[in-house]
Structures are given as structure tokens and as C-alpha cells.
Amino acid sequence: MLSLLFSHIMIVFKYIWYFFFWLIVKIGLAFYFNKIKVSGLENVPKNASVIFGANHENAFMDALIITTRLDRLSHYLVRADVFKNTLVKTLFSWFNMLPIYRIRDGFGSVKGNEQIFKSCYHALAKGRALIMFPEGKHDIRRIPRKLTKGISRIALGAVNSENAPKELYVVPVGLNYTDHKGYRSSVHIIFGEAIKVEKTTQDALALDALRNEINEGLINCTIGLQEAHYEQLDTLIFKTENGYDLSEPKSINARADSFLNCYKAKNSDGLDLAIEEFNEILENLGVKNWNSIKDLNTTYAFIRLLLLLPIYLFGLVHNLIPIILIESLIALKVKDKIFTASIKFSVGLFLFPLFWSLEAAYFNTYNPSIYLYVVYWCSLPVSLLIVNYYHKTVKLYWGKRKLDRSSEIATSLNRCLQYIDSFKSECV
Model's pTM, two decimal places? Predict the structure, then answer.
């Protein structure tokens, strides 16, 4: 009796812990991103078990973004090699993360997936959600990838299990970032049309058929540039155009197809050289895309920087320690740039509020007032936004100044842009 009571208490505690963390992360993401746009949420079945199959371009930021758009308990399949540390393994288990073994982990380890699959079946039978990244790997580039059979194997295995869910759907999820690593960038999450999983045989034909259907749904939700000509397409679209529409797969993919057809139909050696030189110029100027500085008025930018300087200095002083700690951690530990945003967000989510609370408490010892404590605490995250804006504006300001002062750079840039614009106009 006591063991049953304890078990129920632990389940309730786990729910409270899960949704408390869910709320904290959701608030943090709203602060981290400039805009989070959600489309197709009505496609998610309300009273049925769901497997969410998403593209994987931004490490574990992807899972956090999807989770916080849903109001249901979710489980996740995460590559097994991150579970080697006992503390990490325990922590991940509290967030319903399950290890999935791949061939690269060893054929012996892959057998462990059988028990993991059973855990997935059990969760789905309870009406919960399962979040998967069926591409089998992550890549910061916006390219389409063939899905592994894991998602269709789990889906068909669940509906054919002894304790099968009443209904099971697979929902493709597209995560489309305007800038994968940039703080205060935007992301567009698209939930595709739900695919109902029917009970059928689990042979290779059935697995491939379901996988292909999921793959087609995911392609419709994500930006996909052909890998063989990725640099050209990325430059033509993401470095010479801008706006929030850069997270809209339908229009971008159509534009990319048009550019690609033109590129293949003509001798594009000149375009390749123009794009290569153009990217070298942007790197020299220290900017990511042309539109960020082409219309920048350096006089107005300087005035803004001058007016914001006191707030910037306040924000820099009071946020400097966590900024240095996070940047040092990234420099020392992050070898794969795809983890940059994930480390920034996950560490900053706890580190910044901790420092803000300590600073506000110290301030409160001299001015004991709960009202002043709250006002002071709230001023610190606002000042962090100003610091980020200031750094970006300074970078753009000096990039534009360098461009304005160098006739050689300006001439080379204009020549490249004329070639690129001419190519685009011929493709319309």
C-alpha cells in the first residue's frame, strides 16, 4: 500500500517538475528569440497518441522549441552517446529522454533499442507524445535528408503491440530558422498534416511506405536547398535577401528551384566566382548578409549608439560575468558549431537569472524594498537586450564605415551584386 502511494506521489511530482521546467523554458525561449511563429498547430490530433517527426538543424534547441508549443507530456529519443555520464543519464530520465542506439554505437548496443522501443510503445499507449528526429543526424545547413526507418518502425510497432494506442498519428514538424546561432533571431515552426498509422504488416515494404509518406510531409514543412549547390543557393537567398519571409518554406523552396534550374541551364562559372568573391567581402566586412548594411545610415546609427551608451555600459557591467562564462564555455568545449545556440540558451537560462537575483539582492541590502528589488531585477534582462542590440549595431556600423571608406571594396561588391542581380532577374 505504501509503495503504491509512493509511486503515485512520484508520478505527480514528475508531472509538476516537467511542466515547471516546460514553463521556464518557454519563457526563456520568448526572451531568446525575436519571434517564434507557429503554423499548423490545428493539425495536431487532440485526443490521440502522436509521434512528432522533425528536421534536426539546431541540436537540442529543436526539441525545446517543439515541446514548448505543445501542452502535453512528451517523450524524446536522444542519441545514446550523451547518456554515458551517470548524472546526465539521471537528469535526462526526469525529462522523459530515452537513448536511441545507432550502428556507429556498435552492433551490440543497437540491440538495446528493443527495450527502448517498448518504452515508446508504453508511452504512446498512455496517449502521450513522442518527439523524434528521424533524419538520423543534425546539420546546421538547410538541406533535405533521407529519413531513417526508426520512426516508421516505432509507429508500426506501436499499433501492432499488445497494448496498442486507440489511435496513432505521425505529425511532421518543420523547424525553419532565420539564423541558427544568432541571439534574437526568428524561427518558424510548421506542424504538417497528421498521418494516421494503420495496423498492418511490419515488413520492409510497409516500413518504407510509411517512411516515404512522413518524408514527403516533412519536405513540405521545411526549407530544403540542394546540397550539391548549397553555397550558391544560400547566398542567392539568405545573404542577398532578407525579411521574416526567410523562414517560409513554400516561397523559399520555389525560389530555390527557380534559381537552380537557371543555374543548370547556363554557364554559371561567372556566377560562382561572383558568389565566392561576394562571400569573401562579407566576411571581410564582418557581416552575415548584404541587406543588414546596404541601407544603414551610419550617422543615425552613430547617434543611436551614442544615446544608448549609458544603458549599454550598465548592461555590460551587470551581465559581463555570465557572458564571459558562456562564451568561454563555447570556445573551450563546443567543437561543432551546431551546439552554439543550445549551449548559449541552456546555460544562460539558469546563469543569467542567478546573477540577476544575486545582484538585485545585493542592491536590496542598501535599498530594502520589494518594489525596488523587482524593478532592479527586471532592468537587468532589458539591459542584456540592449547589450546584444548594441554589439550588432557596432558590427554593422564598422562594416558600413569600412565599405564607405574603401572604393576598392565598394567596386568589387557592386560588381558581384550586379552579376547576382542580373542572374536573379533572368530567373523570374
Answer: 0.90
